[in-house]
Amino acid sequence: MDYFLKLFLSGTAKGSIYALIALGYTMVYGIVQLINFAHGEVYMIGGFVALIVGGFFFTLGLPVPLVLLLSIIASVIFSSAFGFTIERLAYKPLRSKTRLSALISAIGISIVLQNFVLLAQTEKYLSFPSYLPELPFLLPVREYINSTQLIILATTSVIMVALTLLIKFTRMGKSMRATAQDKHMAQLVGVNINQVISVTFVIGSALAAVGGVLICSYMGQINYYIGFIAGIKAFVAAVLGGIGSIPGAVLGSFILGWTESLGTGYISSDYEDAYAFIILILILIIKPDGILGKNQKQKV
Amino acid sequence: MPLMELKNVCTFYGNIQALRDISLSVEEGEIVTLIGANGAGKSTTLMSICGITSIRSGQILLDGEDISHLSPHKIVSRGLSQVPEGRRIFPQLTVLENLDMGAFLRDDKELVKIDLDEVFEIFPRLAERRNQPGGTLSGGEQQMLAISRALMARPRILLLDEPSLGLAPIIVHNIFEIIKRINTERKTTIFLVEQNANMALKIANKGYVLQNGVIKMADSAEKLLQNAEVRKAYLGL
Lengths: 300, 237
Ligand SMILES: Nc1ncnc2c1ncn2[C@@H]1O[C@H](COP(=O)(O)OP(=O)(O)OP(=O)(O)O)[C@@H](O)[C@H]1O
Ligand SMILES: [Mg+2]
Description:
Chain A is mostly helical and about 300 residues long. In chain A, about 75% of the residues lie in helices and about 0% in strands.
């Protein structure tokens, strides 16, 4: 039972990071029906920015929590700018074309960004310092949950509540929901959908950046390829929960986190990355629209 | 100066020309109707006015100013509001949220509240269902909601695309009465697209007949009602 609890909690922490990335996929899909394949790269870039900015401030001798805060802020700003620019340059001009062209454009951007970072940095894994503090009050229960995991859980919980409130109650949130449901009608009531789409990419990218910093601190390493695998997994989580659905993305992410964690603990860690695809296949067979997905024909 | 005027508007879908040199004008306070058969280009005209479908040539003037190259939200902010074909209710938003979206561009919260009460007074059915998702309303209720949503914008011109489509005769009668009432009580100018030419011409001041993307006739509503060709083709008399 102890062993189970431990696995469950580490799966929860992992799932909550997947959720930060999966939300970006699902929000963008909900609004423009595009699988943004470059989203994983935005997350990876967030991690690198944190590494560089964090390293800089650390050598200046700033206290660690401040370094962490500054590097999260820097990576959020950088990644958001990336997300915004990618949409404007690579997707917006193709909006009136078939969906396939934007999808191909997304794959292209993903490859470009990976290679850009590969050339600008290195192909090797770089070690990523853990800026996350040790919380002394966790000492008695440290076998079950460590500080990093708790901080990850707390951060993602706060972000998810904030996102839910934003979507439910703000003017921008209402515009986003209206745009997701009927773009032309949203325009007819006066919504500036270009702005809504940009904001959606910016929010998705900002969440991915936070996820990037957290997971790099957790794993202790980073390279140019981490966006690909995390991106695929978060994408699986979004599809699992029903792409386009925000609660679905969160649920799918937790299911994925638990499956990986329990699968690794009870079956074998050799297949850690394969569990995601096994449940994806199962879901696609049993419930093609995902757990909370709307029952409609998917066109991608 | 007419409130709204179209001058030689041409609209294409790819290579297919849907509107050919459409010219028409709507004076402030009038009800003007555009009638025509399926595929004539009526909805295209409304979507061109609102900037959803971009026009290839011509001008769309509002208060004498060309709005044809503005984006839709800018056009709407100048006082146009459309009840589009097929109602286009936001299905997952509640009735109240749909109405709220109608008032999206307004910041006079007090007046919005008054308008909301007025809408609920015109359509008590919507008040009963205010917290129900829009997508679960019946067709007729959705039409009421679509009209109400457009009214919540307090437009200067209300564009209506076949508001009577698919409704029971008694409700159709009701809807036309309400359109008339909006025009007289609120002084809202109305541009009404209809296939139900008889009802439309009865409440309108002026009418245009659209055929294959071309304006075939333009006259006062009374004269069009008497016109032999119109009676034969659109009134089934
Ligand atoms: N998105 C589109 N792509 C291509 N062609 C279109 C599109 N929308 C409309 N058309 C064509 O343009 C022409 C005019 O269509 P429109 O919808 O304006 O007609 P309408 O007068 O509103 O007809 P109805 O009374 O059936 O609603 C039709 O021939 C239609 O096939
Ligand atoms: Mg039509």
